[in-house]
Amino acid sequence: MGGSDAKGGPGGEVARYFRHPALPEVDLLRARYVTHRFTRHAHPGHTIALIESGVEEFDLPGGLERAGPGSLAVVNPGVVHTGQAGVPEGWAYRVIYPPVELVSGIARELGAPRGTIAFPAVLDDPAAAGRLRAFHRAGERGDALAASSLLRVALAGLLTRHAKQVRGDAGPAALPPAVRDARDILEASLLDPPSLDELAELVGTRPFPLLRAFRERVGLPPHAYLNQVRVRAARTLLDEGLRPADVASRTGFADQAHLTRHFKRTVGVPPGAYQSAARTRAHRA
To answer: Could you tell me which residue ranges the HTH araC/xylS-type domain spans (predicted)?
Structure first.
């Protein structure tokens, strides 16, 4: 199975980010972190992590969660969160990032109505942990049939036992108009974003009320949200084969070092390691 390792970090940190050619829409990460800290960020799909050793802490809107060995740490789509060591020796884990469409599709096959699936933040379920580990190992081996089968089994088990709610998805329309318009402007202004004062004027409000409402409803202040959008755009360009230096200039980062800092704090590996994995999976596909 193709992938890329980012090694040599403090305390023997190592991270391998990859996808299986049979499941190109599902990102996988296997890592051990000690001093690495994930910045506040969100993923468009689900994040499901099996903690193999140590303790991971992650801050959610509802408070700080801790996940220890054998447990599953789960973050629902669009939820802003962090990630850091909960003990001095750090933590090691296997993570899958299945998209919303895949999880919702399996849920419908199981008879659930349409809607957004939500899971509890920390799950103590040895059987579910075993299924996730089996899928991850099949992905590492490059076993297409086993990986695709085990992924569906693992997700079906989680949905059957732990799906917390299925709710209607109001989407962007649920945001206040000023926040929605400000978000749209930022997403279209990666290279030359407006100042906060300019952004507030463009959406017809004052700077501080906009800052407060944006943070409350989006989970991040405008400048941090912009960096998350830039990282997502950078991933797309890296997948297309652009050099990291060119990606930095095309997504509004000051230089490659600036891109690398934000990329690693969000994705868990630097752009070069991410792109190496992308090239390997494209070669094997």
So the answer is: 180-277
